[in-house]
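Quick one: co-fold with nicotinamide-adenine-dinucleotide.
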Amino acid sequence: MTILVTGAAGFIGSHFCEALLARGEQVVGIDNLNDYYDPALKQARLEKLAKYDRFRFSQVDLADHEALEASITASELQAIVHLAAQAGVRYSIENPRAYGRSNLTGHLNVLELARSAKNLKHLVYASSSSVYGDRSSVPFSENDIVRRPASLYAATKIGGEMLSESYTQLYNIPMTGIRFFTVYGAWGRPDMAYWIFTDKILRGEPIKLFAPDEMYRDFTYIDDIVAGLISILHSPPDESENDGHLHQIYNLGNSTPTALMDLVNAVEKACGREAETIILPKQLGDVSTTYANIDKARAAFDYDPKTKIEDGIPVFVDWFRDFYKI
Ligand SMILES: NC(=O)c1ccc[n+]([C@@H]2O[C@H](COP(=O)([O-])OP(=O)(O)OC[C@H]3O[C@@H](n4cnc5c(N)ncnc54)[C@H](O)[C@@H]3O)[C@@H](O)[C@H]2O)c1
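Sure, here it is.
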Protein backbone atom coordinates (compact mmCIF):
# COMPACT_ATOMS: atom_id res chain seq x y z
CA MET A 1 0.00 0.00 0.00
CA THR A 2 1.30 3.51 -0.82
CA ILE A 3 0.36 6.01 1.85
CA LEU A 4 0.80 9.77 1.75
CA VAL A 5 1.57 11.21 5.18
CA THR A 6 1.39 15.00 5.47
CA GLY A 7 3.32 16.54 8.36
CA ALA A 8 5.83 13.66 8.07
CA ALA A 9 8.55 15.72 9.77
CA GLY A 10 6.24 16.57 12.67
CA PHE A 11 6.05 14.85 16.04
CA ILE A 12 3.12 12.50 15.40
CA GLY A 13 3.79 12.25 11.66
CA SER A 14 7.38 11.06 12.04
CA HIS A 15 6.44 8.39 14.61
CA PHE A 16 3.58 7.25 12.43
CA CYS A 17 5.74 7.08 9.26
CA GLU A 18 8.30 5.00 11.15
CA ALA A 19 5.61 2.55 12.28
CA LEU A 20 4.27 2.24 8.71
CA LEU A 21 7.75 1.72 7.27
CA ALA A 22 8.54 -0.91 9.90
CA ARG A 23 5.40 -2.73 8.72
CA GLY A 24 6.67 -2.76 5.12
CA GLU A 25 4.47 0.01 3.66
CA GLN A 26 5.51 2.48 0.96
CA VAL A 27 5.35 5.99 2.45
CA VAL A 28 5.36 9.33 0.67
CA GLY A 29 6.00 12.08 3.23
CA ILE A 30 5.43 15.79 2.77
CA ASP A 31 6.07 18.72 5.08
CA ASN A 32 6.96 22.37 4.56
CA LEU A 33 9.51 22.24 7.45
CA ASN A 34 8.32 25.63 8.72
CA ASP A 35 10.04 27.36 11.64
CA TYR A 36 7.14 27.42 14.14
CA TYR A 37 9.66 25.43 16.17
CA ASP A 38 13.26 24.46 15.45
CA PRO A 39 13.41 23.01 11.88
CA ALA A 40 16.60 21.14 12.90
CA LEU A 41 14.39 18.88 15.05
CA LYS A 42 12.17 18.22 12.02
CA GLN A 43 15.26 17.41 9.93
CA ALA A 44 16.53 15.04 12.61
CA ARG A 45 13.19 13.21 12.60
CA LEU A 46 13.40 12.91 8.80
CA GLU A 47 16.91 11.47 9.06
CA LYS A 48 15.47 8.56 11.05
CA LEU A 49 13.00 7.91 8.23
CA ALA A 50 15.57 8.28 5.43
CA LYS A 51 17.16 4.94 6.34
CA TYR A 52 14.14 3.20 4.76
CA ASP A 53 14.29 3.07 0.97
CA ARG A 54 10.48 2.79 0.93
CA PHE A 55 10.29 6.38 2.22
CA ARG A 56 10.16 9.34 -0.19
CA PHE A 57 9.98 12.92 1.00
CA SER A 58 9.04 16.24 -0.63
CA GLN A 59 9.27 19.63 1.00
CA VAL A 60 5.95 21.18 -0.02
CA ASP A 61 3.56 23.74 1.44
CA LEU A 62 0.04 22.31 1.44
CA ALA A 63 -1.39 25.77 0.95
CA ASP A 64 0.28 25.87 -2.49
CA HIS A 65 -2.00 23.53 -4.42
CA GLU A 66 0.04 23.68 -7.62
CA ALA A 67 3.22 22.63 -5.81
CA LEU A 68 1.30 19.91 -3.97
CA GLU A 69 -0.21 18.49 -7.15
CA ALA A 70 3.16 18.64 -8.96
CA SER A 71 4.92 16.71 -6.19
CA ILE A 72 2.42 13.85 -5.82
CA THR A 73 1.18 11.20 -8.23
CA ALA A 74 -2.39 10.98 -6.96
CA SER A 75 -3.19 7.71 -8.75
CA GLU A 76 -0.52 5.78 -6.77
CA LEU A 77 -2.10 6.60 -3.40
CA GLN A 78 -4.23 4.05 -1.56
CA ALA A 79 -4.42 6.13 1.61
CA ILE A 80 -3.73 9.64 2.85
CA VAL A 81 -3.00 10.40 6.49
CA HIS A 82 -3.17 14.16 6.85
CA LEU A 83 -1.35 15.24 9.99
CA ALA A 84 0.18 18.55 8.84
CA ALA A 85 -1.26 21.61 10.53
CA GLN A 86 -0.37 24.80 12.25
CA ALA A 87 -0.62 23.47 15.79
CA GLY A 88 -0.71 25.33 19.11
CA VAL A 89 -3.47 27.31 20.81
CA ARG A 90 -1.44 30.27 22.01
CA TYR A 91 0.35 30.98 18.73
CA SER A 92 -3.05 31.42 17.05
CA ILE A 93 -3.35 34.75 18.88
CA GLU A 94 0.04 35.89 17.57
CA ASN A 95 -0.15 34.60 13.99
CA PRO A 96 -3.78 33.85 13.04
CA ARG A 97 -3.14 33.75 9.29
CA ALA A 98 -0.79 30.75 9.62
CA TYR A 99 -3.87 28.78 10.80
CA GLY A 100 -5.99 29.92 7.85
CA ARG A 101 -3.23 28.89 5.43
CA SER A 102 -2.27 25.50 6.82
CA ASN A 103 -5.48 24.31 8.49
CA LEU A 104 -8.15 25.64 6.12
CA THR A 105 -6.54 26.18 2.69
CA GLY A 106 -4.09 23.29 3.30
CA HIS A 107 -6.91 20.98 4.43
CA LEU A 108 -9.00 21.88 1.39
CA ASN A 109 -6.05 21.15 -0.91
CA VAL A 110 -5.64 17.72 0.68
CA LEU A 111 -9.35 17.05 0.10
CA GLU A 112 -8.95 18.05 -3.54
CA LEU A 113 -5.97 15.72 -3.83
CA ALA A 114 -8.10 12.93 -2.33
CA ARG A 115 -10.85 13.67 -4.87
CA SER A 116 -8.39 13.19 -7.73
CA ALA A 117 -6.80 10.03 -6.21
CA LYS A 118 -8.85 7.38 -7.97
CA ASN A 119 -7.40 4.41 -6.05
CA LEU A 120 -7.84 5.99 -2.63
CA LYS A 121 -9.41 3.76 0.01
CA HIS A 122 -9.24 6.06 3.04
CA LEU A 123 -8.38 9.60 4.09
CA VAL A 124 -7.50 9.91 7.77
CA TYR A 125 -6.96 13.42 9.14
CA ALA A 126 -6.00 15.05 12.43
CA SER A 127 -8.57 17.01 14.35
CA SER A 128 -8.16 17.95 17.99
CA SER A 129 -9.67 17.75 21.47
CA SER A 130 -9.74 21.55 21.32
CA VAL A 131 -12.91 21.36 19.17
CA TYR A 132 -14.81 20.60 22.42
CA GLY A 133 -14.11 24.09 23.78
CA ASP A 134 -13.99 25.10 27.45
CA ARG A 135 -16.73 22.86 28.80
CA SER A 136 -17.37 21.37 32.23
CA SER A 137 -19.39 18.32 31.10
CA VAL A 138 -16.90 15.47 30.87
CA PRO A 139 -15.77 13.15 29.41
CA PHE A 140 -15.91 14.59 25.88
CA SER A 141 -17.85 12.41 23.49
CA GLU A 142 -17.91 12.38 19.69
CA ASN A 143 -21.69 12.94 19.95
CA ASP A 144 -21.24 16.28 21.76
CA ILE A 145 -22.15 19.33 19.70
CA VAL A 146 -18.98 21.31 18.93
CA ARG A 147 -19.62 24.90 18.06
CA ARG A 148 -17.96 26.92 20.79
CA PRO A 149 -14.23 26.99 19.90
CA ALA A 150 -12.18 28.79 22.57
CA SER A 151 -9.34 29.58 20.13
CA LEU A 152 -8.80 30.17 16.43
CA TYR A 153 -6.83 26.90 16.33
CA ALA A 154 -9.94 25.07 17.56
CA ALA A 155 -12.12 26.93 15.05
CA THR A 156 -9.90 25.82 12.15
CA LYS A 157 -10.00 22.22 13.38
CA ILE A 158 -13.84 22.32 13.48
CA GLY A 159 -13.61 23.86 10.02
CA GLY A 160 -11.46 20.94 8.81
CA GLU A 161 -14.09 18.47 10.06
CA MET A 162 -16.85 20.38 8.25
CA LEU A 163 -14.86 20.58 4.99
CA SER A 164 -14.26 16.83 5.24
CA GLU A 165 -17.94 16.10 5.83
CA SER A 166 -18.91 18.01 2.70
CA TYR A 167 -16.34 16.12 0.58
CA THR A 168 -17.59 12.77 1.85
CA GLN A 169 -21.17 13.72 1.07
CA LEU A 170 -20.28 15.11 -2.36
CA TYR A 171 -17.73 12.55 -3.54
CA ASN A 172 -18.19 9.46 -1.31
CA ILE A 173 -14.60 9.54 -0.03
CA PRO A 174 -14.24 7.33 3.09
CA MET A 175 -12.79 9.57 5.79
CA THR A 176 -11.90 9.41 9.45
CA GLY A 177 -11.17 12.47 11.59
CA ILE A 178 -9.21 11.91 14.78
CA ARG A 179 -9.50 14.19 17.78
CA PHE A 180 -6.11 13.81 19.46
CA PHE A 181 -5.78 14.59 23.17
CA THR A 182 -2.43 16.14 24.34
CA VAL A 183 0.00 13.71 22.76
CA TYR A 184 3.49 13.43 24.30
CA GLY A 185 6.62 11.33 24.00
CA ALA A 186 10.17 11.19 22.63
CA TRP A 187 10.84 13.47 19.62
CA GLY A 188 7.96 15.61 20.93
CA ARG A 189 6.89 19.21 20.40
CA PRO A 190 8.94 22.07 21.87
CA ASP A 191 5.88 24.32 22.35
CA MET A 192 4.14 21.89 24.73
CA ALA A 193 4.17 22.10 28.53
CA TYR A 194 5.94 18.78 29.21
CA TRP A 195 8.80 19.86 26.90
CA ILE A 196 9.08 23.40 28.31
CA PHE A 197 9.03 22.10 31.90
CA THR A 198 11.73 19.51 31.17
CA ASP A 199 13.93 22.05 29.40
CA LYS A 200 13.64 24.67 32.17
CA ILE A 201 13.95 22.27 35.09
CA LEU A 202 17.12 20.73 33.62
CA ARG A 203 18.55 24.23 33.08
CA GLY A 204 17.63 25.32 36.62
CA GLU A 205 15.22 28.00 35.33
CA PRO A 206 11.75 28.70 36.82
CA ILE A 207 8.63 27.36 35.08
CA LYS A 208 5.42 29.35 34.55
CA LEU A 209 2.19 27.64 35.59
CA PHE A 210 -1.02 29.19 34.29
CA ALA A 211 -3.97 28.60 36.69
CA PRO A 212 -2.52 25.22 37.80
CA ASP A 213 -5.38 24.47 40.22
CA GLU A 214 -7.94 24.39 37.42
CA MET A 215 -5.91 22.72 34.64
CA TYR A 216 -6.38 19.08 33.68
CA ARG A 217 -5.14 17.43 30.50
CA ASP A 218 -5.76 13.98 29.08
CA PHE A 219 -2.09 13.19 28.30
CA THR A 220 -1.81 10.44 25.70
CA TYR A 221 1.43 8.64 24.98
CA ILE A 222 2.67 8.62 21.39
CA ASP A 223 2.91 4.81 21.11
CA ASP A 224 -0.76 4.47 22.10
CA ILE A 225 -1.68 7.09 19.48
CA VAL A 226 0.35 5.36 16.75
CA ALA A 227 -1.27 2.00 17.57
CA GLY A 228 -4.70 3.64 17.32
CA LEU A 229 -3.82 5.34 14.04
CA ILE A 230 -2.61 2.09 12.46
CA SER A 231 -5.87 0.33 13.38
CA ILE A 232 -7.97 3.23 12.10
CA LEU A 233 -6.05 3.46 8.82
CA HIS A 234 -6.83 -0.16 8.01
CA SER A 235 -10.56 0.12 8.80
CA PRO A 236 -12.10 2.76 6.53
CA PRO A 237 -15.75 3.57 7.26
CA ASP A 238 -17.93 1.11 5.42
CA GLU A 239 -21.27 1.84 3.74
CA SER A 240 -22.75 -1.29 5.31
CA GLU A 241 -22.14 0.14 8.81
CA ASN A 242 -22.73 3.46 10.58
CA ASP A 243 -26.01 4.07 8.68
CA GLY A 244 -23.96 4.19 5.49
CA HIS A 245 -22.04 7.22 6.69
CA LEU A 246 -18.52 7.31 5.21
CA HIS A 247 -17.15 10.06 7.47
CA GLN A 248 -16.43 9.07 11.06
CA ILE A 249 -14.85 10.96 13.96
CA TYR A 250 -12.96 9.29 16.84
CA ASN A 251 -11.42 10.56 20.05
CA LEU A 252 -7.92 9.21 20.63
CA GLY A 253 -7.10 10.12 24.21
CA ASN A 254 -6.05 8.35 27.37
CA SER A 255 -9.35 8.93 29.22
CA THR A 256 -7.38 9.87 32.36
CA PRO A 257 -7.28 13.62 32.97
CA THR A 258 -4.11 14.60 34.83
CA ALA A 259 -3.76 17.70 37.00
CA LEU A 260 -1.09 20.11 35.78
CA MET A 261 0.72 19.74 39.14
CA ASP A 262 0.88 15.97 38.65
CA LEU A 263 2.58 16.56 35.30
CA VAL A 264 5.06 18.88 37.04
CA ASN A 265 5.70 16.21 39.68
CA ALA A 266 6.29 13.54 37.01
CA VAL A 267 8.77 15.78 35.17
CA GLU A 268 10.56 16.72 38.42
CA LYS A 269 10.92 13.06 39.35
CA ALA A 270 12.23 12.08 35.90
CA CYS A 271 14.70 15.00 35.93
CA GLY A 272 15.74 14.33 39.53
CA ARG A 273 15.25 18.01 40.37
CA GLU A 274 12.60 20.23 41.92
CA ALA A 275 10.99 23.00 39.89
CA GLU A 276 10.91 26.63 40.85
CA THR A 277 7.38 27.77 39.88
CA ILE A 278 5.77 31.09 38.96
CA ILE A 279 1.96 30.98 39.25
CA LEU A 280 0.05 33.07 36.70
CA PRO A 281 -3.62 33.44 35.65
CA LYS A 282 -5.24 31.35 32.90
CA GLN A 283 -4.19 32.36 29.40
CA LEU A 284 -6.44 33.56 26.60
CA GLY A 285 -7.66 30.63 24.47
CA ASP A 286 -6.84 27.94 27.08
CA VAL A 287 -9.48 25.46 28.21
CA SER A 288 -9.48 24.11 31.78
CA THR A 289 -10.01 20.43 31.16
CA THR A 290 -9.66 17.86 28.41
CA TYR A 291 -10.98 14.37 29.03
CA ALA A 292 -11.72 11.86 26.27
CA ASN A 293 -14.51 9.35 26.20
CA ILE A 294 -12.82 6.62 24.13
CA ASP A 295 -15.67 4.08 24.03
CA LYS A 296 -16.22 4.55 20.29
CA ALA A 297 -12.58 3.81 19.33
CA ARG A 298 -12.41 0.99 21.86
CA ALA A 299 -15.50 -0.67 20.37
CA ALA A 300 -14.47 -0.17 16.73
CA PHE A 301 -10.71 -0.83 16.89
CA ASP A 302 -9.95 -2.28 20.33
CA TYR A 303 -8.13 1.00 20.99
CA ASP A 304 -6.59 0.49 24.40
CA PRO A 305 -4.17 3.18 25.64
CA LYS A 306 -2.05 1.74 28.43
CA THR A 307 0.68 4.27 29.21
CA LYS A 308 0.48 6.33 32.39
CA ILE A 309 2.36 9.63 32.59
CA GLU A 310 4.57 8.18 35.35
CA ASP A 311 5.81 5.71 32.73
CA GLY A 312 5.72 7.91 29.60
CA ILE A 313 7.33 11.10 30.95
CA PRO A 314 10.61 9.38 31.97
CA VAL A 315 10.95 8.03 28.40
CA PHE A 316 10.56 11.56 27.06
CA VAL A 317 13.03 13.03 29.59
CA ASP A 318 15.63 10.34 28.79
CA TRP A 319 15.26 11.06 25.08
CA PHE A 320 15.52 14.83 25.69
CA ARG A 321 18.70 14.49 27.76
CA ASP A 322 20.25 12.25 25.19
CA PHE A 323 19.24 14.38 22.17
CA TYR A 324 20.38 17.68 23.69
CA LYS A 325 23.26 16.20 25.71
CA ILE A 326 21.99 17.79 28.95
N1 LIG B 1 0.44 16.77 19.55
C1 LIG B 1 -0.77 16.96 20.09
O1 LIG B 1 -0.95 16.92 21.30
C2 LIG B 1 -1.97 17.21 19.21
C3 LIG B 1 -3.22 17.36 19.82
C4 LIG B 1 -4.34 17.59 19.02
C5 LIG B 1 -4.22 17.63 17.66
N2 LIG B 1 -2.99 17.50 17.08
C6 LIG B 1 -2.91 17.57 15.61
O2 LIG B 1 -2.15 16.47 15.16
C7 LIG B 1 -1.40 16.83 14.01
C8 LIG B 1 0.07 16.55 14.22
O3 LIG B 1 0.50 17.33 15.34
P1 LIG B 1 1.98 17.30 15.88
O4 LIG B 1 1.92 17.38 17.34
O5 LIG B 1 2.74 16.21 15.24
O6 LIG B 1 2.48 18.73 15.36
P2 LIG B 1 3.83 19.15 14.59
O7 LIG B 1 3.80 20.65 14.52
O8 LIG B 1 5.00 18.49 15.22
O9 LIG B 1 3.63 18.53 13.16
C9 LIG B 1 2.93 19.19 12.12
C10 LIG B 1 3.84 19.24 10.89
O10 LIG B 1 3.10 19.85 9.83
C11 LIG B 1 3.97 20.68 9.10
N3 LIG B 1 3.16 21.71 8.45
C12 LIG B 1 2.47 22.71 9.03
N4 LIG B 1 1.87 23.47 8.09
C13 LIG B 1 2.18 22.90 6.89
C14 LIG B 1 1.87 23.24 5.55
N5 LIG B 1 1.11 24.30 5.25
N6 LIG B 1 2.35 22.46 4.56
C15 LIG B 1 3.13 21.37 4.84
N7 LIG B 1 3.48 21.02 6.09
C16 LIG B 1 3.00 21.79 7.10
C17 LIG B 1 4.93 21.24 10.13
O11 LIG B 1 6.17 21.65 9.55
C18 LIG B 1 5.09 20.08 11.09
O12 LIG B 1 6.26 19.32 10.80
C19 LIG B 1 -1.74 18.30 13.75
O13 LIG B 1 -2.80 18.35 12.81
C20 LIG B 1 -2.20 18.79 15.09
O14 LIG B 1 -3.08 19.91 14.96
C21 LIG B 1 -1.87 17.28 17.82
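If it helps, The domain at 193-216+256-289+307-324 is CATH 3.90.25.10 (UDP-galactose 4-epimerase; domain 1).
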